[in-house]
């Protein structure tokens, strides 16, 4: 192959005159579309227009990651809506040129393909995705107080119709490979053991193009159907968000309702509306939240700890829901309580959660198979993480942890979900009190993203790191906090709560 290097891109030409364009952003663990990256891409497109190859394939040089979107760090550098609009229009012009290239194009997607990465992929004739646990496609922009701004609102509604596109963009839902194929966002799914490159080569040589939307999906962008659908979506969105405080969803709905049958007008509206949103107070505030969450996610990143099995003691509301959430994240969980009758309600709640989140019978059955009632507590000896969630009684917790310490693996994470009893008091009866941490979940577990990793001056730092790593593993933001004695009023409130749970 002949090769041309840029700072963030690599351009290879093989003997069949297929051009392989690889994005590999310098100095970053993931690819994002910064100004520099897009400027280099424009130079590459100019070169391809001047000397057309037989075909073009876009791929990522990062392992298990495609493009995670625009570089959010640059959002705060925008000083005005006019500056933002000018930049968005430049991106639109570049993506239009890619879409208009006079030869077959394909894109290979593996890992996260989000926001601007998906918008770029939609400019190519044919999209191929690897079916793996690492692959996700979606638009997270609404969480930042904007909506897709690199042509996503126009190209996504054109590709799959507003009926499917609006919920995808408004909910920030991430799709797995086969879900994206079923929706029509991508054209081909390859197995984990198949070659993306060979699939892309065949697609380019055959000149394959995306089929586009089906008849019903296409009709949803036109006439009365669009108006009716926009009204329904606006009503559903209004039930969850106030347009005065959270305008982005309604800006997207309004733009599509008025111009959904005209992609060029949709692009024009996107440039104006997203530019206005990105410089507004709501987006600035949500970006601050985003960076706070990113900061929390860095906790535990240096730990190599990864759990496979979890044992939860206490099948009440908190314990049962912690167990169910861990199962949803792919872990094997044993759930212990004094009698089966105390575990059954937790299993029933878990089934409802699995049905709501997993949808298909096979995935629900798979989750249920990973959640085991364990009255005798046999699972504790095999678990990588043990979480105690029994009632708030010091003596009961001390007795439980003395028993657990004698049976669990020496390298297992030993944690309590307690919020009212100082960690040192519980740990005082252990042979290795420094290994006990708190993993304090909030109710409802499935909706509250924060987990406090509780420690005191005697806690082993490595245990804090392992607790944070586990929180990240199950999709929760770990916040290290120091254990402290609660006030008398909060102690009384906790005691009342414990009596209610019992």
Overview of the structural elements:
The protein is 46% helix and 16% strand. It is an alpha/beta fold and 502 residues long. Strand 15 (413-416), helix 17 and strand 16 (436-441) form a beta-alpha-beta unit. Helix 2 (81-99) runs antiparallel to helix 11, helix 4 crosses helix 11 and helix 13 (317-328) crosses helix 14. The radius of gyration is 26 Å and the shape is elongated.
Protein topology:
Elements: E1 2-5, E2 9-13, E3 18-23, H1 35-50, E4 55-60, E5 65-67, H2 81-99, E6 105-109, E7 112-114, H3 116-121, E8 126-130, E9 136-138, H4 152-160, H5 162-171, H6 177-183, E10 188-190, H7 196-206, H8 215-219, H9 223-238, H10 248-259, H11 263-278, H12 281-297, E11 309-313, H13 317-328, E12 332-336, H14 340-358, H15 361-369, E13 371-373, E14 385-388, H16 394-407, E15 413-416, H17 423-427, E16 436-441, E17 450-455, H18 461-473, E18 477-482, H19 488-501
Parallel strand pairs: 3-4, 4-6, 5-7, 6-8, 7-9, 8-10, 11-12, 11-14, 12-13, 14-15, 15-16, 17-18
Antiparallel strand pairs: 1-2, 2-3, 16-17
Helix pairs in contact: 1-2, 2-11, 4-5, 4-11, 5-9, 9-10, 10-11, 13-14, 14-15
Mean of residue pLDDT values: 94
Rg for CA atoms: 26 Å
Instruction: Report how far apart the termini are.
Output: 69 Å
Class from helix and strand fractions: alpha/beta
Strand order within the widest sheet?
13-12-11-14-15-16-17-18
Regions with little confidence, pLDDT below 50 for 5+ residues = 487-502
Shape annotation:
elongated
């Amino acid at each position: 192959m002949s090769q041309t290097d840029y700072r963030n891109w690599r351009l290879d030409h093989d003997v069949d005159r297929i051009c392989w364009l690889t994005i590999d952003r310098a100095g970053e663990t993931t690819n994002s579309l910064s100004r520099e990256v897009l400027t280099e891409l424009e130079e590459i497109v100019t070169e391809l227009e001047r000397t057309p190859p037989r075909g073009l394939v876009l791929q990522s040089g990062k392992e298990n990651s495609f493009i995670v979107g625009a570089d959010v760090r640059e959002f705060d550098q925008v000083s005005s809506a006019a500056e933002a609009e000018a930049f968005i229009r430049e991106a639109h012009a570049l993506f239009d040129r890619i879409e208009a290239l006079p030869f077959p194009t394909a894109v290979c997607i593996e890992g996260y393909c989000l926001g601007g990465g998906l918008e770029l992929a939609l400019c190519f004739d044919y999209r191929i995705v690897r079916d793996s646990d690492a692959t996700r496609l979606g638009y997270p922009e609404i969480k930042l107080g904007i909506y897709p701004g690199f042509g996503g609102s126009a190209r996504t509604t054109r590709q799959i119709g507003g009926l499917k596109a609006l919920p995808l963009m408004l909910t920030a839902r991430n799709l797995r490979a086969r879900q994206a194929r079923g929706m029509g966002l991508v054209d081909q799914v390859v197995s984990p053991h198949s070659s993306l490159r060979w699939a892309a080569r065949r697609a380019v040589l055959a000149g394959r193009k995306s089929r586009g939307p089906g008849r019903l999906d296409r009709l949803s962008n036109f006439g009365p159907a669009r108006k009716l659908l926009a009204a329904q979506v606006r009503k559903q969105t209004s039930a969850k968000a106030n347009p005065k405080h959270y305008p982005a969803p309604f800006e997207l709905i309004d733009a599509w309702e008025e111009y959904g049958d005209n992609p060029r007008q949709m692009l024009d509206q996107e440039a104006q509306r997203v530019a206005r949103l990105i410089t507004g107070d709501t987006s600035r505030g949500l970006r601050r939240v985003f960076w706070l969450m990113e900061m929390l996610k860095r906790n535990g990143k240096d730990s190599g700890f990864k759990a496979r099995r979890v044992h939860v003691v206490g099948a009440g509301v908190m314990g049962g829901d912690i167990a169910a959430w861990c199962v949803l994240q792919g872990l094997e969980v044993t759930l212990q309580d004094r009698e089966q009758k105390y575990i059954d309600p937790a299993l029933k709640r878990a089934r409802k959660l699995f049905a709501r989140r997993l949808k298909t019978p096979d995935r629900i059955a798979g989750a249920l198979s990973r959640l085991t009632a364990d009255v005798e507590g046999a699972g504790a000896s095999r678990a990588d993480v043990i979480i105690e969630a029994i009632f708030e009684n010091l003596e009961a917790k001390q007795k439980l942890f003395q028993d657990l310490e004698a049976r669990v693996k020496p390298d297992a994470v030993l944690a309590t979900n307690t919020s009212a009893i100082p960690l040192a008091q519980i740990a005082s009866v252990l042979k290795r009190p420094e290994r006990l941490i708190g993993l304090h979940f909030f109710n409802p577990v499935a909706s509250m993203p924060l987990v406090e990793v509780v420690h005191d001056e005697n806690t082993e730092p490595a245990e804090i790191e392992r607790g944070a790593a586990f929180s990240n593993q199950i999709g929760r933001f770990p916040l290290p906090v120091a254990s402290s004695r609660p006030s008398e009023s909060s102690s009384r409130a906790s005691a009342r709560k414990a009596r209610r749970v019992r």
